[in-house]
């Protein structure tokens, strides 16, 4: 079946659904970060805290039976009452609050739309292997186990005003404080008039995928597969999503750093001197301060020994390295320069999963990993939301692992199954 034959609304649509939620005494103990931020060590730690942690569903293991094991675990938790289904279809007001953190939005069933319509805007490409893994999990469990995160530019009044009114005046369904001090709360919107207010406010908007590109690609693949099988319209025409009005709650956009095992720091710095200005710093803190103050493309190299700040790339070499098929805006991104110039032209490496490891946010953790791997950490400055919106609106994609929007929704607070959603 062609994509044009799939249900695809002409506006941004968020439907209510019957949420699936944990019914355990210690809700904090059964939640987790999103699947792509959970290491194997994290899995063991989370399961040590509680055997029913949601990580058993989102990362069910490595053997060939892992997807069916996740399905059976989900089924047994529903039958035993570990998980329960809300009585009424709802949109869920979601709040994260804590020191320097306040985010509010709506969790619901996002109607899937063709990317060509420009209603849902991706800004990153996806890795086929990751989509295949998430597709197998969603198909086997027939569920969406964690919401993707999207931001939209609303009017700052109608939907967001309702969200704020609910969060400040009504008792929550869920109120849980995690070890990092962040409090997560949920409220259910079920009244038809309130649901209509949200629907009217969202329909004329478009949404940028902040986090969850692979899952959104999986939603679309699952929809195509089920329609190809002749199932027709159904819950697979929607995907679990959190929508946040960026006019009211601007997202926090953090950097994603690289670690190159086996490339010694001094060798990396020496080879960079032919194309960059290289400045040495004894301590990472000093190098990071200099990075923050830099104008133009810049990176910090860290690992075993003094740190090095790279600035002022040779303009001729840089121009020859950047692809002609991309816009000037794309070619000026630091992550584009990293993936097209620094890694392949200066070091002869590709920015792929086999060569380069990823560290979200923490430059000190990246440096520690580089020392452990006898390699080099590349500390990358964050992009801006304006950078990302401009690239997405122009129909381009930033290089892989360019952005880390936050604060990310906590996994395990509300799930969605096809049988109930």
UniProtKB/TrEMBL annotation:
This is DUF1015 family protein. Pfam families: DUF1015. InterPro entries: UCP033563.
């Amino acid at each position: 079946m062609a994509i044009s034959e799939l249900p695809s609304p002409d506006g941004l649509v968020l439907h209510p659904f019957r949420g699936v939620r944990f019914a355990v005494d210690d809700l904090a103990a059964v939640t987790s970060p999103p699947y792509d931020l959970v290491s194997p060590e994290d899995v063991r730690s989370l399961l040590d805290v509680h055997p029913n942690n949601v990580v058993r569903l989102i990362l069910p293991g490595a053997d060939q039976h892992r997807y069916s094991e996740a399905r059976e675990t989900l089924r047994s938790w529903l039958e035993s009452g570990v998980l329960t289904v809300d009585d009424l279809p709802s949109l869920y007001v979601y709040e994260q609050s804590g020191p320097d953190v306040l985010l509010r939005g709506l969790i619901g069933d996002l109607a899937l739309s063709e990317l060509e319509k420009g209603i849902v805007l991706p800004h990153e490409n996806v890795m086929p292997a990751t989509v295949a893994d998430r597709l197998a999990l969603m198909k086997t469990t027939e569920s969406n186990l964690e919401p993707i995160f999207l931001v939209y530019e609303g009017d700052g009044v109608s939907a967001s005003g309702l969200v704020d009114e609910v969060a400040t005046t009504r008792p929550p369904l869920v109120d849980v404080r995690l070890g990092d001090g962040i409090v997560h709360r949920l409220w259910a919107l079920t009244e038809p008039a309130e649901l209509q207010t949200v629907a009217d406010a969202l329909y004329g908007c478009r949404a940028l995928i902040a986090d969850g590109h692979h899952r959104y690609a999986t939603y679309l693949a699952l929809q195509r597969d089920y329609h190809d099988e002749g199932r027709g319209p159904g819950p697979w025409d929607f995907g679990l999503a959190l929508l946040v009005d960026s006019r009211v709650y601007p997202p926090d956009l953090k950097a994603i750093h690289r670690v190159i095992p086996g490339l010694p720091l001094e060798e990396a710095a020496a080879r960079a001197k032919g194309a960059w200005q290289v400045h040495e710093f004894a301590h990472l803190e000093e190098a990071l301060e200099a990075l923050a103050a830099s104008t133009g493309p810049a990176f910090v190299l860290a690992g075993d020994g003094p740190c090095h700040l790279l600035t002022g790339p040779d303009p001729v070499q840089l121009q020859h390295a950047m692809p002609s098929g991309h816009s000037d805006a794309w070619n000026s991104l630091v992550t584009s320069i990293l993936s097209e110039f620094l890694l392949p032209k200066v070091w002869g490496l590709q920015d792929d999963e086999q060569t380069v490891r990823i560290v979200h946010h923490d430059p000190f953790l990246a440096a520690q990993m580089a020392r452990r791997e006898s390699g080099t950490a590349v500390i990358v400055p964050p992009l801006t939301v304006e950078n990302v919106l401009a690239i997405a609106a122009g129909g381009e994609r930033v290089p892989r692992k360019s952005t880390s929007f936050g604060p990310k929704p906590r996994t395990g607070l509300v799930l969605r199954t096809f049988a109930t959603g």
